[in-house]
Automatic annotation (TrEMBL):
This is Acyl-CoA dehydrogenase. It comes from Streptomyces griseomycini. It is an enzyme of class 1 (oxidoreductase). Keywords: FAD, Flavoprotein, Oxidoreductase. Residues 136-227 form the Acyl-CoA oxidase/dehydrogenase middle domain. Its EC number is 1.3.8.7. Its cofactor is FAD.
Amino acid sequence: MPYTLAPSYDDNPRLQDLVGRLRTYLTDELLPYEHAHGITPESRLDRPTLERVWKRSAELGFYGISLPPELGGQGLNFTELCALKEELTASGAALSHSVLGDMGGPLRVGALMKYATEQQRERYLLPVVRGERACCFSLTEQDAGSDVRRMTTTATPDGDTYVLNGHKVFSSAAPFADFAVVVARMAHSEETYSAFLVDLDTPGCRVLDGAVPMSGQQMEGDLVLEDCRIPAANLLGEIGQGLRIGIGRITLNRLLHCPSLIGAARRAWDLSVAHARTRVAFGQPLLALQAIQHKLADMATDLYAARSMVLATAAKADRGENIAVEANMCKLFTAEACFRAADQAVQIHGKDGLTRGHEVEQIFRTLRMFRIVTGTTEIHKNAIVKALV
């Protein structure tokens, strides 16, 4: 299939139909709704606004679409999921993260099903799939980010309960979540970590406003656990599986973040081309200048390379093969390449690209952030060399 910035997917009729319907929803419904209500990427979102997107996306068959049919999804493979995730951010929609269920929704809990008991599925995970509840994932701490084993949050067995104490940061979706998946170190052990389902209204659990990242999105929260007592039945998986649950999820997320970054960079390309066509300098459109043409060529080439890597890795994941090395490579290259594209977009836009509130400026800040989020560039390089050498 020839390369195009906006793929047609004419070699995959099912995907072509899904992408067409998704583009229609975004263009005809979601973007007009955002514009009518003044919703931007930096808006503080309330639960009713998000639930409206969850419900409508579910009606259209997009919410949790990658889950297996028995859980209400359509069993999309990773390649198809990557295509939809790219389309979402390429649209520029501020609420794009809620259409498939990335932010607190089914894409957060799908991988947890194999660890959950029947009771846990019924009470916690399936309501998320139906759009009735939302969850967050709490692994990171102030001094335990890349070096996750430095976490100090502890879980102490006490009869038929566990008592949790600690402070988690950068828990995405915490401001509007109902429960959290909390990874904690077992008390009196230096190397045993477990995962727990914690209702956020449990006594001893407080959700605080988290730090606002440079993207300006107000999606993060801190979880403060002070003698927070939860039932032993809320242990997710087995004792000692906490890091497997947490880091295993992160490995896949490193791949699945990539198409969202590509979509954002594609949006920056679209805005740059539109600006270069209409902005006149020295008696001609910017697009007539070879310097601008070269920047656009570099942007398109980076997007092609990143998309090719991601789709090749997604296809390998679809075959059930291990993608640990490739996922790190994809996240490393995509984060750097898409940030380069955003930087070129700022340069093309000149003073407009430097103005707070301009869409290109916001994309630039967001893509800069993802050179750190879900693994820094340096951590990815370490992991790649460790695996290969």
